[in-house]
Amino acid sequence: MATPDPRPSSPLDGIVLIAYDGSANADHAIDAAAQLLGGGKAEVVHAWEPVSSAAARSAIYAIAYDDSGVMLERERQQAAAVADAGVARARAAGFEATGGALSGSGPLWQTIVERAEALHPRLIVMGTRGLTGVRSALAGSVSHHVASHSDVPVLTVPLGDDRSRSAG
Amino acid sequence: MIRQPVLVLTSGDAGRRALELAISVTQAHRACLTIMHVLDTSPPWWAGTGGGADFAQAQREAHRDGERLLAAVRDELPGDVLVRTCVLHGAERAGVQVLRALKRGDHDLLVVEAPSAWTGPAGHGSGWLVRHSPVPVLTVRAPCG
């Protein structure tokens, strides 16, 4: 991951951090952000968490225990592929994009917030899954947690009109 | 480019930061900013129970207070910011009123203070707006410390 840029002088200066998960919602968020912001520098981050790590937090560690490391390597490769797809999408949309996969020690939202703290972007761009009501409460929301924990402004892009709001 | 951003005016540090952000965006994109002040005027459970409270009068006063607040905000804005203001009031919850206004207008961005960390399904605050808004939502929270 690149060296952090200096802190922007205003909310409209500097790099944009795009949190990308490989979904159609995330693709749409990139396109919409490019249209709204007119491109510019961007770092695309695919935050991921090894299954073994998530399982440990969920108290099912024995099921997901990966002694050989094969599963972890496969996950790492998949995450890198998703990040590459996000960078390509952002470049096609008009951003000067770099980026990569990033795994942290905690939940996904925390990895994104920590990257923002290091990078000092002008804002964070995310898609939303459009979950509402009980589904939202049960499934949690990465975008909600990022918005409520980040010091940086967060641009949350909803699904387009032609997409199902319950997708993802 | 952003043409028709909307700010939902709220109080506190996060509300102030959201206002500043909305102004920056408006200036950078030479847009027209709409600032909304939302009143939740749904009658409380005790309205009409014979307690002597004039709820309609209270609503009118709240509306006047909202207009005064928006006028004060307008006076503070830089001269190059094109702005419209409106007080939303109705029997619906605040979030529903904002959604209706977004759908009525040709808006392309909603600016609002960030939701709290609590992710419960109830309530019509900014978290609810982020999940239901038909347009992208720009949120900002109060600075730490």
What does this structure look like?
With 168 residues, chain A is α/β, with parallel strands linked by helices. Chain A is built from seven helices and five strands, in the order βαβαααβαβααβ. Chain A has a five-stranded parallel sheet, with helices on both faces. Chain A starts with 15 loop residues before the first strand and ends in an 11-residue tail after the last strand. With 145 residues, chain B is of the alpha/beta class. Chain B has a single domain (5-140), classed as HUPs (Rossmann fold, 3-Layer(aba) Sandwich), CATH 3.40.50. Chain B is 40% helix and 21% strand. Chain B has four helices and five strands, in the order βαβαβαβαβ. In chain B, strands 3-2-1-4-5 form a five-stranded parallel sheet, with helices on both faces. The N and C termini of chain B lie far apart (34 Å). The model of chain B has no long low-confidence stretch (mean pLDDT 84). The chains are: A alpha/beta (168), B alpha/beta (145). The interface between A and B is medium-sized, with 34 and 31 residues. Strand 5 (154-157) of chain A pairs antiparallel with strand 5 of chain B.
